[in-house]
Each structure stands twice: as structure tokens, then as C-alpha cells.
Design brief:
Elements: E1 11-18, H1 26-39, E2 44-48, H2 56-59, E3 68-70, E4 73-75, E5 77-79, E6 85-89, H3 105-118, E7 124-130, H4 137-146, E8 151-156
Parallel strand pairs: 1-7, 1-8, 2-6, 2-7
Antiparallel strand pairs: 3-4, 5-6
Helix pairs in contact: 3-4
GO molecular function: 4 iron, 4 sulfur cluster binding; ATP binding; ATP-dependent FeS chaperone activity; metal ion binding
Keywords: 4Fe-4S, ATP-binding, Iron, Iron-sulfur, Metal-binding, Nucleotide-binding
Protein name: NUBP2 factor
């Protein structure tokens, strides 16, 4: 009920993709999950809050795109031949796609909250949230910001070792 009147009001399900360590394939899994849901006819968005290594724009070959503002916030980048996946990433806000982001907690947390509140997602069946590695401030911020919304659950990516 709290989600009414926000930019997430039209999002039916939110799925977090998490892991305890880096390099296990979170961004790959987020991308593949979005593409699979899209091919099943679902309306899909990806929120890339991996501030230190935003790789999804490159995976989807839109790393040169820029984000525009509209009345209700940032307009996500449309991805794919049918432009059917909406993508928002810190990568679009950097001067060069390969720039690293070195920020302290409060600034990261503020950006994550802004990503949750200020992106004009429109109507989506699924919003996939790709998180940074580990269990840090950013995860708590993302979960707290998403708590009033339809958080469906999380996919935990692990490796066999």
C-alpha cells in the first residue's frame, strides 16, 4: 500500500540478486534472468546498484547510453532490439564507463535510495536488482529502500568451494 504514488507503483515483483563474494556471476545471472523473463513475455527492468563494478550496461551493449530526466525522475535506458528491457545503472552516470566509483557509505546509500525512488520504471512485471558483492551497507540500503514495495525475494549466487 505504501508503494502507491511512487515510481515503483507499477512494478509487480522485485527480485534482489546477492552473493557473499565477488566474481560469482551476479551480473550475468541478473542479465540472463531478465532476458529469460523477457522472452517469456514479461515486462522487465534491471536496477544495477553494483556501484563499484557496473557491468550490466556492457553485457547488454548499451554502455555508451546516457540517462535522461523526465518529470518523474530518471528515464531508464531501453535495451534490446525491441527495446523491451529497462535498465538503470551507475555506469550511465560516469564520465567514462570504466571509471571506478570510490565513495563512502553515506553517498552510496543516498544514490541507492535515489535509484529506488527517482527512476521512472513505468509498468513492469519484474524488477531485477543486481547488488554489489558482499553483505554491506549497500545491501541494507537497498532492502530498506525497497521494503515498502513488492519485494518478491532474493536469488543468492554461490560457488561450490
Amino acid at each position: 500500500a505504501l508503494a502507491e504514488g511512487t515510481n515503483l507503483a507499477g512494478v509487480q515483483h522485485i527480485v534482489l540478486v546477492l552473493s557473499g563474494k565477488g566474481g560469482v556471476g551476479k551480473s550475468t545471472l541478473s542479465t540472463e534472468l531478465a532476458l529469460a523473463l523477457r522472452s517469456a513475455g514479461k515486462r522487465v527492468g534491471i536496477l544495477d546498484v553494483d556501484l563499484c563494478g557496473p557491468s550490466i550496461p556492457r553485457m547488454l551493449r548499451v554502455q555508451d547510453s546516457s540517462v535522461h530526466q523526465c518529470d518523474s525522475g530518471w528515464v531508464p535506458v531501453s535495451v534490446g532490439q525491441d527495446r523491451a528491457i529497462a535498465l538503470m545503472s551507475i555506469g550511465f552516470l560516469l564520465e567514462r564507463p570504466d571509471d571506478a566509483v570510490v565513495w563512502r557509505g553515506p553517498k552510496k546509500n543516498a544514490l541507492i535510495k535515489q535509484f529506488v525512488t527517482d527512476v521512472a520504471w513505468g509498468d513492469l512485471d519484474f524488477l531485477i536488482v543486481d547488488t554489489p558483492p558482499g553483505t554491506s551497507d549497500e545491501h541494507i540500503s537497498a532492502v530498506e529502500a525497497l521494503r515498502p514495495h513488492r519485494l518478491l525475494g532474493a536469488v543468492l549466487v554461490t560457488t561450490p568451494q
